[in-house]
Amino acid sequence: xxxxxxxxxxxxxxxxxxxxxxxxxxxxxxxxxxxxxxxxxxxxxxxxxxxxxxxxxxxxxxxxxxxxxxxxxxxxxxxxxxxxxxxxxxxxxxxxxxxxxxxxxxxxxxxxxxxxxxxxxxxxxxxxxxxxxxxxxxxxxxxxxxxxxxxxxxxxxxxxxxxxxxxxxxxxxxxxxxxxxxxxxxxxxxxxxxxxxxxxxxxxxxxxxxxxxxxxxxxxxxxxxxxxxxxxxxxxxxxxxxxxxxxxxxxxxxxxxxxxxxxxxxxxxxxxxxxxxxxxxxxxxxxxxxxxxxxxxxxxxxxxxxxxxxxxxxxxxxx
Length: 319
Hints:
The protein is α/β, with parallel strands linked by helices.
């Protein structure tokens, strides 16, 4: 792996570029589409053994969307989505500001993701899609599904949270307050987020219940994403609270059949939030499943269990 480090006269941030290719599963290729904020790169099962050479792909789309955090990318779902590639047209993008998609240097706002996720779905999913998404991204998907219900068949969501649900916000978190200070935010990102130690600490404390379930490939994938040029902008907008909102104000309007999966030991956003959201709209949220002894991302911590639950809910969800 070759690393290039550049400094810019008018920017306090260190720019780091990687030549190493992001990890991707067998039989998946990379494609690009344009959005209003730049190009989104996505991984799709368009090669053997999932799709015969030259064959058309008219399978039902299944879209996997990763959550937010230090070094997040579509890798988050890479241990799960190949299990569906034989039957579905599996699609897994890196969201704008993350992974290998465009990283425009800006303070990101909620509307940026509501718009670019919608644009991505409209360009890649010609028929109604089942979306499988996690955490804050799952909350964004709920808002998009409310405004554009014709795009969706069903939703399978892991720990959906706007991070300010029911008026309870993390805004008083000490780290969140520090992020809003110039220079300090750069230091926090480069040491606390975009480093191997920072990534491993984040995974252990924020995402996984058991540290022994974290192995080198996971850390490497998150680190590669965090060290992309301009990778700090989306991450700092997330940590600083610019993307947070109260999901409880929206979920009552949801009409798409939905299943929610929640790790019992999820940090900051525990399963009690999920149960309260369920109570607001049991007509749309047809299933709520708590997984014991797992943290925020069961798709990485217990992928086989997550696969089994998704398979179950793809059949169980009905209009």
